[in-house]
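Now for today's protein:

——
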Amino acid sequence: MTANEIIKFVHLMSIVVWLGALVFFTFFAAPSIFKALPREEAGTVVGHIFPKYWAIGYVSSSLALITLLIASYTAKSFPALRVLVLAAMTAVTFYSGLGVGAKARTIKAGIKVTVDPEQKKLLGKKFKKVHMISATLNLIIIAGGGVVVFLTSQGLTP
């Protein structure tokens, strides 16, 4: 196996793992967890999964982008749209996990320790808003992944 073949394999595998995890967790795992468990327990389970979920995104997105840039350099061809979409997806992934996700965890922790019902209600509203942002960003990443897969299917070379 040549170096170029290894780069292409790592590139494709990183996209497959990343999008597979996104789709599975978003459309199958999380809804099933919330259906099978009481809301608070489901939130705890999902909260334990999220660090690993984001780690898959951080590693896979970075690998996908880096391997695409390496393949582009070696092929002396620059697939600008693929690079742009992957870069945007990577940025959104890091922002969603490190920014929005951190904010959600902070709010959730506040809800657990707050005794005042009004404060709890206010924090609940804040959490719903942050959750909606997180879900929207997740769907944007999945849609971008569809674009990347389509563009990649047009030819495995950059």
User: Anything to note?
Assistant: The radius of gyration is 18 Å.
